[in-house]
Specification:
Elements lengths: L5 E4 L5 H12 L15 E2 L5 H9 L3 E8 L2 E10 L4 E9 L8 H15 L4 E7 L3 H8 L4 E8 L9 E2 L5 E8 L2
Parallel strand pairs: 5-6
Antiparallel strand pairs: 1-3, 2-8, 3-4, 4-5, 6-9, 7-9
Length: about 180
């Protein structure tokens, strides 16, 4: 099935579909069909079309999208933070396809792309409460750095916390 997965760079015309995908993977009832849901921790949207436009137009970033049989099924934001470090964010997979290997394939693609930029490491941020997500990234070679910070619960564009004390935690991987 994944042999026909096509990964491309997002265009502005993809922004609405990407927004729907990201929000369905993390928030609301649709997200409960997969394992990446944050619906019990954060309410509201994960992103909006304007933010996706900004990502697509950012010259230091690349929003990669994955297609399966002509349908948008996954995306990931990659950003060059400096000469040696890339950032992986907003990895989103259609909830009905989670655990099918799409995310794993998109991470491998992302790491190869960031390495081609000359970066030697990749950084990402997860919700500290998502121990299952931390374990997923640890199986792919990412390690917790010990750095964490409070979730920015003051901007409803990124969601509204449903529980107190949410923290963001950094993970990092050296790219061989």
């Amino acid at each position: 099935m994944l042999d026909s997965l096509l990964i491309t760079t997002a265009k502005l015309t993809d922004a609405e579909a990407v927004t729907r995908l990201v929000n369905s993977a993390y928030r609301g009832e649709a997200s409960r069909a997969g394992w990446t849901t944050e619906a019990d921790l954060i309410g509201g949207q994960r992103t909006d079309v304007e933010r996706i436009f900004e990502m697509i137009e950012d010259s230091d970033a690349s929003l990669q999208i994955a297609w399966l049989d002509g349908e948008l099924v996954a995306c990931v934001l990659l950003k060059r933070e400096n000469e040696s470090t890339g950032y992986l964010g907003m990895l989103s997979v259609d909830p009905t396809l989670q655990a099918a290997g799409v995310g794993k394939k998109l991470i491998a693609h992302s790491e190869a792309l960031v390495k081609s930029w000359g970066c030697r490491s990749m950084r990402l941020i997860i919700l500290q409460a998502r121990t299952d997500l931390a374990a997923y990234y640890e199986r792919r070679g990412y390690r917790k750095t010990g750095f964490s910070e409070p979730f920015p619960g003051t901007d409803p564009r990124f969601g509204v916390p449903k529980v107190e004390g949410l923290r963001l935690e950094e993970m990092r991987k050296h790219l061989d």
